[in-house]
Amino acid sequence: MPSLSPDLQNLLYIIASVLFVFGIKMLGKPESARSGNAVSALGMLIAIITALLSEQILHWQWILVGLAAGSIIGALAARLVAMTAMPEMVALFNGFGGIASLLVGWAEFQKIYSAGELMSASYYQIFIILLTVLIGGVTFSGSLIAWGKLSGTVPSRPILYRGQRIVNGILVLLIIGFITLLTGRLDLTGLENYTHFLFIAALALLFGVLFVIPIGGGDMPVVISLLNSYSGMAACAAGFVINNNVLIVSGALVGSSGIILTTIMCKAMNRSLTNVLFSGFGSVSTSTQGEGFQGEAKAISVDDAYYVLEAAKNILIVPGYGMAVAQAQHAVQELATLLEKNDAEVNFAIHPVAGRMPGHMNVLLAEANVPYEKLKEMDDVNPQIENVDVAVVIGANDVVNPAARTVESSPIYGMPVINVDKARTVIVLKRSLNPGFAGIDNPLFFNENTRMLFGDAKATVQGLVAEFKN
Fold first, then answer.
1. How far is it, in rounded angstroms, from Cα 329 to Cα 337?
2. CB 323 within 8 A of CB 457
């Protein structure tokens, strides 16, 4: 099959890159998000076809096998993976992007090694290959640990040990040393060079594990965003390795957007990225007997909660991961509809780091057909919170914890939260008084204006719905 001319190839790559940019732009608005996804997918299809037609591929059967396998796995994942498992799936996507880049770098190194061209290879060429392997390896293994923390396979709490930073520092120095040795001593025997290459790949995979295990579950949204950025940077580096312009552009887009999102989320928590990565946040729970935690939690029944909601005219619903776990989003949407039919104003308050991934609550509520204009950002809700008759907290904990404002010894002190404690009445739907995913107790549960509605979130909301229908 004849290959495309360089001019036509570059033109098609430019078209694909433009589609990527417009697709990402369209993802910024709910009404155009689906179209933006389709536009970006079209750009990727053009890029893939162009790349395949630009190379003299002898064994198309393997391309077709990979295409078929990937399509089947993707279709099954889209159909079978629950919305509650989206954070884990995103973590795996990041990891697959990283391992793909690592394998591209490895294949290019193998190509040079097999041809006996290591001696003639430029330092720049070898360095870019090693950088691709390094970022790809860290992204892959780090994403697997993030997936484990989100799925419960790995403990969500930070895993800390004595001398951890020293070990990580030594590991970084070893990686730098091997990269320097390999790029600066290409006159070594081929076997020695290949051994050094394998050491770099193994150290990258190990560093990814050690990089993520000290990070607590409450910081997983930031970690996922950061690893997404890493997967983009790895793809960008892989683009330089194989001299593919569209891979460079798409990788740069993913990498830069991931860093921007990471910065936004850190700002939402009033913490630096360094603090997120190295503080071991959530490793020790604060005591419920400490400052601001005195009092007795007041339980409320579904029947009594119904009467409170039935009399309210301004209701704010604050969803959290507990709503996702219980798969209660559809029941919550039905309850909100019934409340509005009862002449109440109903809005949803969304904290930037609620859930386990960026935009997690937005995705769940959109799936339940909650109008997007009902989703309010934290900064828009807090100034009006004192006018709210009832704030209904469904499975959220850390993002509504008033200790962030009042308890200086709290690990989340200074983090902006949704100030539901300032509403006239707060109803908290939780299974128990246990801390949230970050392992931090919440004095909100003991406030005078708070009532605890214990039980499964979905069953509880469905009970409220039944009361309104009756």
1. 12
2. yes
